Automatic annotation (TrEMBL), chains A, B:
Signal peptide: none annotated. The keyword Transferase applies. The keyword Metal-binding applies. This is Polyprenyl synthetase family protein.
Length: 335, 335
């Protein structure tokens, strides 16, 4: 878990975890095994952790309202549901260090597992009180679904040879906002809003969530290229193989360096054509992308720095420090 | 549409339909086409129609609260979402008279279309006020998902030759309750509850919903066998071919007639092995099942009669008559 060095959150996240377990409880059913398997996997718990931090900063000592935990559990469940369905769509083999649900239990079961997680997430927010927060989460989810569908779109356009504007930086950022940042923004917003009525504070938390979300996705993209299979829990370059383009790739295609641009496009085309990369191909692609990983890394660090600038507006307490440490830990993922 | 002969509901259901359209609006996205295609198909609108009737019976003249329409739209959206995902799981080729979403647009898009419909459904209930009604719907949905997974379970057990208790009548009924009746019960309950605080009335409506739901599923099973492909919008015996067992089949296996029992099992085994039915096989199966369709039909009529007995407790107004007519129209599907 991402938070293991931050003991302040242990109690809170255990509460979230037990809520998650309770919420998916369907007694002795075919889905129990895959759902429990997935839920018990080592997860970063980044979204629920951030949601709770965002609340704690404004309510450092007292008991948090139950709704905070329910929202935190719900947002993690939605995230899990979307992972399970996305893994079907991307035909991913691994997730969270183990075989993906679609590969381990079959596509049919994976569809239902995702539906069940989704349903549990929805139930948890209905149980809580504030309607407008629920709609923030669902709004985020809608964005997530449409972003995923745009990736299918792009892969199709590419296959047809329509490359124009397909790998633009702005297009990439727009998609990352939908695919990843919106749920982070929702988490930070809801945490704050449940305990603090000051709208400027809520906005500040949303901005921090936005920066964390965008940089988190960029980091994932970088790690997909440079990390070992063991480290990420899915094989390196797996996204590209499914026609999903990461940030270093976007930077390469827009580098102005004709040789790298052509190479990137031709390797992407090969990935899409379904041909498995040979290890030589893979090495060539990684070698070409490494300098762009460095560029991307710098951008990530500057976005995380921007996030820190918002801290001047926040209350000063131990939770604010924890959030600051969290941002540094995120940056350290790239070391 | 099922309600076309009941003009009282035209205005109400048009309102529901426009809510549904608004709720799935994601501008110019890859999913817009399949979602709109699906939404514009001729649908029975049975669940939202019943929900509104259940409210109208207790509020015959005045304007219905907006929440009633939102719940009605939501319950139809959930139903649609589950159809789209179930069609992937069952590899169904047709739905609502046209090519299924999975066959027309591909499995990947169908997963996202279902997710989007689900998300839209959840948004609609969050917008409305009464939390406990939302949880009734989600509870129903959980049952639906687990029922679908049990069908996968059974097909697997059967493939392994473990037939014991696989086709029991009680088991069938239990599944139908989850798969179909629960959403009907939810519809009738919510309609009443939104406008009438009398708990006995709500219970009465739930009971009527239960009877309609169970008999509706049995009817679908019967029609899968006796109707022409054109009439049902999917090919005859399609359920069986995917290893899903209908009520006439259950009656045949439990008939005490050894010859029919063996024949049913052997044909089911053939269906599961993936072999396409020859038209001779199909005819043999249909001929064997027809008498059991008659038995099932009698049971459907007696359940619908039981539903009518509850009417003695209901207010007497034109909407009560419409609901009574509705039950008769349902029974007429089998003529």
């Amino acid at each position: 878990m991402f938070w293991k060095d931050i003991p302040e959150l242990t109690y809170e996240l255990n509460k979230v975890r037990s809520l998650i377990k309770k919420s998916v409880n369907v007694k002795s059913n075919r889905l129990t095994l895959p759902v429990m398997d997935f839920i018990n996997r080592d997860a970063k718990m980044l979204r629920p952790g951030l949601l709770i931090l965002s609340a704690r900063i404004f309510l450092p000592e007292d008991k948090l309202p139950e709704s905070v935990y329910r929202y935190a559990a719900s947002i993690e469940l939605l995230h899990m549901a979307s992972l399970v369905h996305d893994d079907i769509i991307d035909n991913a083999e691994f997730r969270r260090g183990l075989v993906s649900i679609n590969h381990g239990y079959g596509v049919k079961d994976a569809i239902l597992v995702g539906d069940l997680l989704f349903c549990a997430a929805a139930e948890l927010i209905y149980d809580s009180t504030s309607d407008s927060d629920a709609s923030v989460i669902l709004h985020g989810l809608k964005h997530l679904i449409t972003a995923e569908s745009e990736e299918l779109d792009d892969a199709e356009l590419f296959r047809k040879g329509q490359l124009l504007g397909l790998f633009g930086r702005r297009k990439y950022i727009r998609r990352v906002i939908r695919k990843t940042a919106t749920l982070f923004v929702a988490a930070m917003h809801i945490g704050a809003r449940e305990v603090c009525k000051d709208e400027f504070m809520q906005q500040t938390m949303r901005r921090i969530g936005y920066d964390i979300g965008v940089s988190f996705q960029m980091m994932d993209d970088i790690l997909d290229i440079i990390s070992k299979k063991e480290l990420m829990g899915k094989s390196s370059l797996s996204d590209l193989r499914e026609g999903v383009v990461g940030y270093p790739f976007v930077l390469a295609v827009n580098s102005g360096n004709k040789k790298d641009e052509d190479k990137a496009i031709s390797l992407f085309r090969k990935a899409l054509s379904g041909g498995l990369f040979s290890s030589a191909h893979r090495r060539a692609l990684v070698d070409m992308l490494v300098p762009y990983c460095d560029l991307a890394r710098n951008e990530v660090l500057s976005i995380l720095n921007r996030a820190k600038k918002h801290f001047v507006f926040l209350p000063k307490n131990k939770w604010t420090v924890v959030l600051l440490d969290t941002i540094d830990s995120l940056a350290n993922r790239l070391n």
